[in-house]
Structures are given as C-alpha cells and as structure tokens.
Design brief:
This protein is mainly β. The protein has no helices and 6 strands. It has one domain.
Amino acid sequence: MSNYSFKLSELSIVTSKTVAFINVEGVHNVNGVDSTLTGDPFLITLLKFFLPEIEGTATGVLMGEITFDQPGTYQYNCSVRFHTKEWLEQ
C-alpha cells in the first residue's frame, strides 16, 4: 500500500498461497469484509478478512498475511478515513 493505492491492484495467486500486505507510508488497513463505499458486505468474497490500521514507513511495514484457501475473486479496500477506492484480488 502506498499513495492511496494497492500495488499490485490485481494479483493472481495459486490456491492456498499466502499474500503479505505491506504498508509503505501513511495509515491504512486492509478491509475484506464490507464495502467502504456502500456499507454492504462484499458479495463475491469467499473469505472475510481484516487487517487493522497501521502506520507505514518509507521502507514498508508488514501489516499481516492472508492465506486464500479457495479459488475465486476477493474484494478488499482500505476503510481508513476517505480511502474509498475498492480493489480486486484473484
């Protein structure tokens, strides 16, 4: 996470692999539960996940890791303040 976006904004992984979320500057979280834009649950997400907000550094801070055990498309965003753009992960 950096500059109000996730890099890569889309990522394809093999089922049962773990993705590390690293915050490069700013205060962010990883919200894979509800849409920050609408408040509705992410409907296509098979796994609900949330990593609490943490302040990043220029070199990056590990926010946490999520293992995606089922194939599918996973939605997530940052729900801190006005970080309302939503991203997809496959």
